[in-house]
Task: structure prediction
Amino acid sequence: MSDNSRITGAASVMGAATLVSRVLGYTRDAVIAYVFGAGMSADAFFVAFRLSNLFRRLVGEGALTTSFVPVFTEVMAERPVEEVRAFVSRFFSLFFLILLALAFVGIIFSPVLVKLMSPGFSVVSEKFALTVSLTRLMFPYVVFIGLMAVAMGVLNSYRHFAAPSISPIFFNISIIVLALALTPFLERPVYALAIGVIVGGVLQFVLQLPFLKRYGMTPVPALGWVDPAIKKIFLLMAPAVVGIGIYQLNIFVTMRFASRLPEGSVSYLYYASRLMELPLGVFGVSITQAVLPSLSEYAAKKDLSSFRDSLSFALRIANFVNIPATAGLIALSIPIIDILFVRGEFSGGEARATAFALYFYAAGIVPVAASRILVSVFYSLKDTITPVWGALFSFFFNILMCLLLIGPLRHGGLALATSLSAVLNLLFLGVILHRRVRGFGLRGIFSSAVRSAIAAVVMGVSIHAVVYYTGWDGLGILSKAMLLVASITIGMVLYVVLSFVLGVAEVSFLKELIAERLQRKRGEKSA
Result:
């Protein structure tokens, strides 16, 4: 199997699992919107949840996994399997203690963190106290999601992507079930969501254990932490944490500005960003995680030609799927939000406010996805400093854009500032990497992206017309759902056909890949 086929296959597995997880995630958000709307409890939970996710990115699949995989790949190649197994146990043990300490510190300083992230909440004492309480309750989640990230790094290094990809499914199910089951019995119903987060974190880690056992990598308590490889991981991880921390500070900036806007603004931004994260999670993160082991392997072998080919392919595939996703979200923003959230405490006016933010967030899908791939490239080269500089420049640019755009566009301006800062980060990383590896097929990437964009614009205009010329507002919920599914299906078919007509190379590759897999399955059956 070619490396491009292997990358696409791994990304497909992760993408499919992530898609199921995202669907459940939107079911989770729909439950939250139904029960809590966009009022004080929802705002408090989303800020507390953002804080938990910040630390998840810092010590989880963000900095840890991208620093762990390149080093662990070397350990697997250079050491006997018994020593690899011992290395895994030592790293698990050390990281567990670090996570415990981090959770303890976070619980103590929760009031400070909440005030830093949402200073506007301190004006309403009840809202501030509720947010602090939820933050403290959810901080142990960091321990379990951090251990899950180590397990994911081990499994991904063995080219096993399924178990880490499906684990968020159990996280979302946990929140949905406990929110519906516990809410009627709690004096403050929103605490059911926090309990669901903790239980979901435990389930995500526990799910990895049988698969670690399959590869003989079940962790056990172990000492002996003086290991050059462990030191190398933390040396790589330190600047990665800073880089991701700066990136996550953009969320802090957005929340700080939004906390001073009318009540509900935090929730509008949360719901809109969740919709933006669907293509990023299904395609962007999946492709990034799939390509990292290959890039790390080529970097270790100093095979620059194969390195460039894999990088160029990953960027072209990412654009091929994320450009139409952007057009689709913009064209169908109101129908999607209507179907997902408009019920119970969530009104049509709140749907329109959320859609306004989504228009601007969607513009950042392509640059964010491409930036994540480029960051993984620098990590595979064991360069974690350059992404820090990119994140730093985009952070200050984001603050400037927030200051300029919040006046005329309110919460929509904050979403647009996030997208513009992602564009700046992509340009910075792309220029540096182009000089570092002496090109990686930019002409082909640009040509493919332009053709995909033309097909996506035609698709977006067409499906927008399909929805609105059939009288969306006058339909019932079932008819709306059927029309939305039909519009998305029509859009996908139209985009693929137009891409084929316009000569987008990725269509031919996907066609060949499907034919290759069908032929392999027929061969397996005949055998």
In short: The radius of gyration is 23 Å. Residues 264-527 form one domain.
